[in-house]
Amino acid sequence: MNALEIQSISVNFGGVQALHDCSFSVRTGEKQAIIGPNGAGKTTLFNIISGMIKPSAGGIYLFEEDITAIPAHLRAARGLARTFQINNLFPNLTVLENVVLAIQALSPTKYVFYRRTGTFKEMIHKAERQLKDWGIWEKKDQQVRNLSHGEQRQLEIILALSGDPKVVLLDEPTQGLSTAETSLVVPMINRIDSSTTILFIEHDMDVAFQMADKISVLHQGRMLAEGTGAEIRGNRQVAEVYLGMDEHHA
User: Which of 98, 154, 202, 250 is the most exposed place for a label (fewest CB within 10 A)?
Assistant: First the structure.
């Protein structure tokens, strides 16, 4: 069964067509990468899938339900979570407080304003379990602003997973990370429950080929190719427009 299906998505910004007739699907439990040059439309595609931008044409289906016209917060309630290129954390709050707020955002208690957040013991216990499970419990009382960039990336992924989503969109999870920091984040993504569907944008080709079951290549707003890592590596058209293959890379 397809967890996510994108059917003939197009989007125009004024006279500029950012995406043109893009179609692909991601099966339940699959890890799929979206790669492509800068300006290919990758983040625009994520903004459409997550509900931040309305497409000019086409449809989006989450477990066969048409969510094209559903706002972003209702997509989240249906099990679609997302991270961003630039982290979306609260830098002056602690690690634990950030996780509690993420859990509360998908809870009915987010509409209750007459109780202190600290009284919601179940959410706090869940947040504590998350931090222990992901191995950053010792950082729980640190302000997020004092974490390394890699640790902030890890925390952002934990926040995305805090609502037990069925589909997770990871937008450049290793962007700006050192080799050492990448070596923390990649195993973390690979540890995500195998029933969770992951669609991720990745600029680091080694990371994309290492993690993805399937890779889609976006070029100038169009889907250029799709296949396994081996198929994409062997695709001459992809090499010409994206990998920059020449005699030095032969």
Answer: 250
